Amino acid sequence: MAAPIKVLVTGAAGQIGYSIVQQIASGHVFGNKPLSLILLDIPPMMEVLEGVVFELMDCAFPLLHEVIPTTKEEEAFKDIDVAFLVGAMPRKEGMERKDLLAANVKIFKSQGSALDKYAKKTCKVLVVGNPANTNAFICAKYAPSIPSRNISAMTRLDHNRAMAQVAVKAGVPITHVKNVVIWGNHSSTQFPDVRHAMVNKNGQWVDAYSAAGGDTWFKTDFIPLIQKRGAEIIKKRKLSSAMSAAKAACDHMHDWFNGTAEGAFVSMAIPSDGSYGIPEGIMYSFPVKIDAASQQWQIVQNLPIDDWAKEKMMITLKELQDEAQEALRACEA
């Protein structure tokens, strides 16, 4: 039997972690490969974590080779192949992102250092804990031995939300939508873009922008709906997104390992290489295609961007630059 893939989930006793581990263990993410799951949380959550281990055992997943609960970073990060960095203070009703940043950035400084010291240098890392882009930026800074392109942040939740709204508006199944784009930050400044998207109507791929309602719908209804969806869910549930966030994290990692479909792209927050005028190193969400053989992403190039869209892209860039500076100051304090 092949050696198990060593997968770390931090914050595994929390709501998102609880949903993620089930999807990973089922084979949804990595396919028919044996798995070793390492579950990290803070010491007060150890008993809850043990309950999660019991449940995973009781599910009798054929692919699950072992489950290791721990509260120690040096044990959790040792020789891992994949990391889902979920553990962070969740956003609550009335909280601003700057409140989250101050609370969470030092967690990701510590975890970046642990990645650098203990993880395999080929490890693929997804930051889910908010503010995700900036936490990933800090994580990468403190993990210099891990290639920066192996560290990403999750905007797949926004991407999935956008696809779902296009499907509803165009009157097609979700499987008949492709190539929406989330530009920038996983925040209310993000620019969800459907002007490159397609929908399948009556067996033909057609322009989603027109099929979903054109400019008025796009600018008046769609963009603010996606930008504010997370806050709306908090208002309704009194808790941040969990089930949908877990599904999006698993979608992100599934495509990273298995590649994107022919002619399709997805959104990932990754270190910019200068594409579309975004300065190098900024953890910015782009449309990407992923090669299944190499498991390497490439930014989709030469999408037409008009002045209005460019302005939206620069607004979210400015927020990311400001957040990065604030995070660096917090790390040095």
Q: What would you note in describing this structure?
A:
- This protein is an alpha/beta fold and about 325 residues long.
- The protein folds into two domains: about 5-155, NAD(P)-binding Rossmann-like Domain (Rossmann fold), CATH 3.40.50; about 155-320, Alpha-Beta Complex (L-2-Hydroxyisocaproate Dehydrogenase, Chain A, domain 2).
- Helix content is about 45%, strand content about 20%.
- The protein has eleven helices and 14 strands.
- It has helices at about 15-25, 45-60, 75, 95-120, 130-140, 155-170, 210, 215-225, 230-235, 245-260, 305-330, and strands spanning about 5-10, 35-40, 65-70, 80-85, 125, 150-155, 175-180, 180-185, 190-195, 200, 205, 265-270, 285-290, 295-300.
- The strands form four sheets. A six-stranded parallel β-sheet has the order 3-2-1-4-5-6, sandwiched between helices. Strands 7-10-11 form a three-stranded antiparallel β-sheet.
- Strand 5, helix 5 and strand 6 (about 150-155) form a beta-alpha-beta unit.
- It is globular.
- The protein starts with a strand and ends with a helix.
- The model has no long low-confidence stretch (mean pLDDT about 95).
